[in-house]
Amino acid sequence: MATSMSLFLLAVGAILAVAVNYQVQGLDVNAIGVILMLVGGVGLLFSLLFMASFAPFRTTGAPRDHYDDRHDRPHTHDLS
User: Considering the entire predicted model, what is its pTM?
Assistant: First the structure.
């Protein structure tokens, strides 16, 4: 949801900044477009970083589904 909203803001901002040539008294449409593009870019960056925090990163060690029965043996400690 956040990613799609950020892409939407980027698209609307790009249209306002580049393609619209309309003058509104007291309002700069191009500046609003640039602001929307910046907000969309920051939102996209944060949403991608947030999604990356849930990514299942693998280590180079043994696979996670590997069963090692060495840990099931009772441990004996020599205290002498």
Answer: 0.65
